[in-house]
Design goal:
Helix content is about 35%, strand content about 20%. The chain starts with 8 loop residues before the first helix and ends with a strand. The protein has helices at about 10-20, 30-45, 55-70, 90-95, 110-125, 155-160, 180-185, and strands at about 80-85, 100-105, 130, 145-150, 165-175, 190-195, 210-215. Strands 3-2-1-4-5-7-6 form a seven-stranded mixed beta sheet, with helices on both faces. With about 220 residues, it is an alpha/beta fold. It has one domain: 3-Layer(aba) Sandwich (Rossmann fold). It is globular and about 50 Å long. Helix 3 packs across helix 4. One of its GO terms (cellular component) is cytosol. Belongs to the methyltransferase superfamily. RNA methyltransferase RsmG family. It is found in: Cytoplasm.
């Protein structure tokens, strides 16, 4: 059984109210893995700059909760690609709470790739694949229904560099702060855009998901 008393009062509150606000359920195993993931981030962060955020309560909000806002927009049995995954956001938190999904992390920085592979092993994430290469040079053996990123590049570059990896009928979902109107205006005319405002529990900053689809 997951023991909330392992956490500080503030951390436990963030986790409980965050999942409730996002209308998400998580198994006890997923919660254990989520805390273990934060432990790994703290352990590796001294040697590799995985995140500038050092406080555990802020990691819970800005990494776990932020990543979990993506979950309701991913259908069952879809293949998800997280581009420029860095420390594993949003791919690893999504993999923790949605073990039914097949998720690939793609990262070109080999030190970060080493962390991602170790996290996969230690967390027992059998639904996770880690690829250490530049996305534009990737020669896929499969195509993805959803391609996502957080702070990877501007939208035009995101679409251009990953278009060969998107399955027919699939979509890109970029995780952004304020609505990037300039980036949206630079997108090719054949790309349709839908914007979803996101509320992260305990965070007042703007967050949006930018959904992009190529015309058929």
């Amino acid at each position: 059984m997951f023991e909330y008393d392992r956490l500080t009062t503030e951390e436990a509150q963030i986790l409980r109210t965050g999942l409730e606000s996002l209308h998400l359920s998580a198994s006890e195993q997923s919660l254990e893995q989520a805390i273990q993931y934060l432990d790994l981030l703290e352990k590796w962060n001294g040697a590799i700059n995985l995140t500038a955020i050092r406080q555990r309560n802020r990691m819970l909000t800005l990494h776990l909760m932020d990543s979990w806002t993506l979950v309701p927009f991913i259908k069952d049995s879809e293949l998800l690609l997280d581009v420029g995954s860095g420390g594993g956001f949003p791919g690893i938190p999504v993999a923790l709470i949605r073990p039914d999904l097949s998720i690939t992390l793609m990262e070109s920085n080999q030190k970060k790739v080493a962390f991602l592979k170790q996290a996969k092993i230690e967390l027992g994430l059998f639904n996770l694949e880690v690829i250490g290469e530049r996305v534009e040079q990737s020669k896929p053996d499969k195509l993805y229904n959803v391609i996502t990123c957080r702070a990877f590049s501007d939208l035009s570059e995101f679409v251009r560099s990953t278009r060969h990896l998107l399955a027919k009928g699939g979509e890109w979902i970029a995780m952004k702060g304020a609505i990037p109107y300039d980036e949206i205006n630079r997108l090719p005319a054949e790309i349709s855009t839908t914007i979803t405002p996101i509320q992260i529990p305990g965070l007042k900053a703007e967050r949006h998901l930018i959904h992009l689809r190529p015309s058929l």
